[in-house]
């Protein structure tokens, strides 16, 4: 037993002395593994990373785009709303203005009409008065001549007409009254 | 082999470095060699199959693959190298992380039960033959030969007299120690962890079979410790894979940056 142990101990190489065959095998095995993985496996992992990143970034981008679009729409709506409000206010103002104008016009028209009616009435009155004055004047002349005829005892009618006495008298009266 | 020894004599032989040198299975091919090849097949199949089923909405299987890739890509490569330049190095970092991780976890898988990286040749292949040349290559391509050397050896803002001391230290650390410690970290953790598991398991076996009557139940304690250590090992195996990839990314980042 002791003998074998000694023999084994003598055979035992130090564990920190590398076997050259193992170093070569280790190197070849590692490089082979590296080559296989680099060639057949890892590019796919990297591609997956890229794809995933793109998907996530795409998603974020899409969300941002959607938000921008929504904001734009909101802005548009608000602008439209403001525009509509302004429009309605403008229409209201216009309507008020128009109403004012119409009222003004109607008032002017009414005033015109009233003036016209008053003027027409006045001129009619004037005409009637003139007519009445003329009639009265004629009647007065005739009555005066008639009365004078009765006083004088003969008809002065022709004479008076011929000479225009009555008319002249009345004209004198007129001019006296006009002077007063 | 070990069981044979135990059957022979009644003395407990503590397991040692020799237990990591398993006899060749056939034609000089040993268990760790087979395991490395197996890990390559497993990882390649895992990622290639997952990559064929990838979709924007992941399934459970592709989610696991994506998480591993994502961890290597964003938590290690991008974090260390920076989001501007990390892309070309993502395959290297993810492959390195998964390669170390699977080989470490082999230490816990029943039947396999051997962390490949407890053989220093494998981590050394990655650190000395992959990361170290890559570090030089990236640095020289970025800053030119002199620029790369100066960038690594002369920290900015250090007074000249101090440089006399600092430059040799930096040179020793950067050009000699870094690739070694890079490999030794994971190697030592795997080696020690596996050794601890062997010790507790074999001790339990020895106590049960060889110890005198009252000591036999103590084997249960030993096995309980072996189980507890297995959980710790699981943590360390994942952690070491992370650290290994993290350091690789760190060296790449150091080669790229103007002042480290």
Q: Tell me, briefly, the overall form of chain B.
A: globular
Number of domains of chain B: 1
Multimeric state of these chains? heterodimer
The end-to-end span of chain B amounts to 51 Å
Main beta sheet of chain A: none
Task: Briefly note the structural class of the backbone of chain B.
Answer: mainly alpha
Q: In angstroms, what separates the terminal alpha carbons of chain A?
A: 183 Å
3D shape of chain A: rod-shaped
Count of strand segments of chain B: 0
Beta-strand portion of chain B reads under 5%
Structure classification of chain A: mainly alpha
Membrane topology (chain A): Single-pass membrane protein
Subcellular location (chain A): Cell membrane
Keywords (chain A): ATP synthesis, Cell membrane, CF(0), Coiled coil, Hydrogen ion transport, Ion transport, Membrane, Transmembrane, Transmembrane helix, Transport
Coiled coil (chain A): 56-116
Q: Could you characterize the architecture of this molecule?
A:
The complex is a heterodimer of chains A (180) and B (260). By secondary structure, chain A is mostly helical. Chain A has four helices and no strands. By secondary structure, chain B is mainly alpha-helical. Chain B has seven helices and no strands. Chain B has helices spanning 2-8, 31-52, 60-81, 90-105, 121-153, 160-210, 218-256. In chain B, helix 2 (31-52) packs across helix 4 (90-105). The longest helix of chain B is centred in the last third of the chain and has 51 residues, at 160-210. The interface between A and B is large, with 41 and 53 residues.
